[in-house]
Design brief:
about 160 residues; mainly alpha; about 55% helix; disordered N terminus
Length: about 160
């Protein structure tokens, strides 16, 4: 029962506020509860539920309450071992800080110079000759050994 559409009816929140003596929302009149059968029914149901809860006998025995109280006191009186667990994040942070500083100050290994293989200088004429021979081939050089297996004059067969 929500009062979202500017209707004069009271929503559940308004009824609960009225029940506990909080002033009703702006635009709501208390006499509406007497005049409107729908709101009067909701008001009566809410009052009935509250009355049942207030007059209901306690279903908790004294023995249950005593047991609960003893359990609470026993837990309060336990030695506190949580102090170690509270110190763990600080100890972990200190350890990481120490390791970071130690690694930062450690001497760096000296890099050995790497020898680079020298490239033979090839003349432009020689390069263009090799490129032309590759382009003019009917099949790639890598296929020569495979084609040799299927040549007519092959004297040996693969076993």
């Amino acid at each position: 029962m929500m009062n979202t559409n500017n209707s004069p009816h009271w929503n559940e929140s308004d009824l609960i506020n009225q029940l506990y003596g909080v002033e009703p929302a702006a635009g709501l009149h208390v006499r509406h509860l007497d005049e409107c059968p729908e709101c009067a029914q909701a008001w009566a149901a809410l009052n009935t539920r509250r009355g049942i809860l207030l007059t209901a006998p306690a279903q908790v025995s004294d023995e249950q309450l005593r047991t609960q109280r003893q359990a609470i006191w026993a837990r309060i009186e336990q030695p506190r071992r949580a102090m170690l667990w509270r110190a763990m994040p600080a100890a972990a942070t200190a350890l990481l800080l120490f390791v970071g500083v130690a690694l930062h100050q450690a001497p760096r290994p000296q890099l050995e110079p790497v020898e680079v293989a020298s490239v033979q200088s090839v003349s432009d004429t020689q390069l263009f000759t090799e490129l032309a021979s590759v382009v003019n081939q009917e099949s790639p050089r890598a296929a020569d050994s495979i084609q040799g297996l299927f040549a007519d004059d092959a004297t040996t067969e693969a076993q």
